TrEMBL record:
Domain Peptidase M20 dimerisation: 179-280
InterPro entries in UniProt: ArgE/DapE_CS, Bact_exopeptidase_dim_dom, DapE_proteobac, Peptidase_M20, Peptidase_M20_dimer, Peptidase_M20A
NCBIfam families for this protein: PRK13009.1
Binding-site residues, Zn(2+) 1: H71, D104, E166
Role played: Catalyzes the hydrolysis of N-succinyl-L,L-diaminopimelic acid (SDAP), forming succinate and LL-2,6-diaminopimelate (DAP), an intermediate involved in the bacterial biosynthesis of lysine and meso-diaminopimelic acid, an essential component of bacterial cell walls.
Gene from which the chain derives: dapE
Summary of subunit composition and partner proteins: Homodimer.
Keyword Ubl conjugation: no
Name of the protein in its database record: Succinyl-diaminopimelate desuccinylase
Biological source species: Marimonas arenosa
GO MF annotation list: acetylornithine deacetylase activity; cobalt ion binding; succinyl-diaminopimelate desuccinylase activity; zinc ion binding
Keyword annotations from UniProtKB, A to Z: Amino-acid biosynthesis, Cobalt, Diaminopimelate biosynthesis, Hydrolase, Lysine biosynthesis, Metal-binding, Zinc
GO BP field: diaminopimelate biosynthetic process; L-arginine biosynthetic process; lysine biosynthetic process via diaminopimelate
Pathway annotation: Amino-acid biosynthesis; L-lysine biosynthesis via DAP pathway; LL-2,6-diaminopimelate from (S)-tetrahydrodipicolinate (succinylase route): step 3/3
Active site: D73, E137 (proton acceptor)
Length: 382
């Protein structure tokens, strides 16, 4: 009889792989080994310098196929010296596991891998289990989950439903799951005036007042009050820069960057149009040129409450005693790609320390997450 797979130990070993985006760092190789050993068919789906791992247990193309999606890449640790335990130490101290990825989301990947391995070993289901694990969620994400989904469609692989294991609970285990996400986009503005001496401003065209006006107009505009399933949209100014070190020079150029999180009352295209109109108006008022470049990372999306959210919420409630709130709050996730493929929801552990120095997680939360994922599999294949 093979022992059950310990998700805490697996998380520890994953944390010890330095896999800051887009480095693979040995994390996917480790999962490949663990899953292959348990009878999963594993294929590395690398693209554009990004490593990804596809793993399936059961028949290809089975009509009943449960998918998990997650990532092993992590954001940079920042100042190593500021960490109580090294960011890649995987130290387990007094029941707490430390390191980059402890919450976001090597623990989630370890929990679903361990749950899937135990499940197929102990109660082989009538159906298939697919793990789609990417090495680039935190970066551009162009060759990450999208590459896996492209490869799957080209190779007759399919998930009937998918659970993304990102951390979804704000403070307490079990309190929240995600059934969609707001959209995300960024816009970069360059205001061009005319360089000059700051003591002779009439001979220059200063781009900064125009930038200040534009940023203020964009940031002070109320986009909406939220909608049935979504929080209000928000626009944040995330950068204003001239690159000008001199105090007696009016620079010719100024750049400004905004990031928008938007709900289903908007689209990337409608917001681009609005910002373009604002920029044109300010440019005319101030006699400057304004260029705008936009990147739409994802539109808003929703998997309406139904069988999949009921299945996950029921298992979470059964294991934690809490019925998770169905939310679309926070940032975006790779579910924005998966939703083109099959119904998708997200559930994971408490994300309090994600992207912070001293990222850490109580080890028993990882074990509990594995139990919840195991129960979801049991209920799905029942
Ligand atoms: N860099 C990518 C995707 C960025 C995804 C990132 N997601 C989170 O931080 C998740 C946090 C949460 O669960 O609330 C984000 O929203 O910026 C891209 O923009 O293409
Ligand atoms: Zn994540
Ligand atoms: Zn993250």
């Amino acid at each position: 009889m093979t022992a059950n797979l310990d998700p805490v130990h697996l998380t520890q070993n994953l944390i010890r792989c330095n896999s800051v985006t887009p480095a693979e760092g040995g994390a996917l190789a480790l999962l490949d080994e663990v899953l292959s050993e348990a009878g999963f068919t594993c294929v590395r789906v690398d693209r554009g310098g990004v490593a990804n791992l596809f793993a399936r247990w059961g028949d290809k193309g089975h009509a009943r196929s449960f998918g998990f999606n997650g990532h092993t890449d992590v954001v940079p640790p920042g100042d190593d010296a500021a960490w109580t335990h090294g960011p890649f130490s995987g130290d387990l101290v007094d029941g707490v596991l430390w390191g980059r990825g402890a919450t976001d989301m090597k623990s989630g990947v370890a929990a679903f891998a361990a749950a899937a391995v135990d499940f197929v070993r102990n109660t082989p289901p009538e159906g298939a289990i697919i793990l789609a694990i990417t090495g680039d969620e935190e970066g551009d994400a162009v060759d990450g989950t999208t590459a896996l989904l492209d490869w799957m469609s080209n190779n007759g692989e399919a998930m009937s439903v998918c659970l993304v294991g990102e951390p979804t609970c704000p403070d307490e285990m079990g309190e929240m799951m995600k059934i969609g996400r707001r959209g995300s986009m960024s816009a970069w503005f360059t205001v061009t005036g005319k360089q000059g001496h700051s003591a002779y401003p009439h001979r220059a065209v200063n781009p900064l007042p125009a930038m200040a006006r534009l940023m203020d107009r964009l940031a002070s505009h109320k986009l909406d009050d939220g909608s049935e399933h979504f929080d209000a949209s928000s626009l944040a100014i995330v950068g204003i820069d001239t690159g000008n070190p001199a105090t007696n020079v009016i620079p010719a150029h100024c750049t400004g960057t905004v990031n928008i999180r938007f709900n289903d009352l908007h689209s990337g295209a409608s917001l681009s149009k609005w910002m373009e109109e604002e920029a044109d108006m300010v440019a005319a008022d101030f006699g400057v040129g304004i260029d705008m470049r936009v990147k739409i990372s994802g539109e808003s999306f929703l998997t309406p409450p139904g069988p999949l959210s009921d299945l996950v919420a029921g298992a979470v409630e059964g294991e934690t005693g809490r019925r998770p709130v169905l939310s679309t709050s926070g940032g975006t996730s790779d579910a924005r790609f998966v939703k083109h493929h099959c119904p998708v929801v997200e559930f994971g552990l408490v994300g309090h320390f994600m992207h912070q120095v001293d990222e850490r997680v109580p080890a028993d939360q990882i074990t509990q997450l594995k139990t919840i994922y195991g129960r979801i599999l049991r209920d799905y294949f029942a």
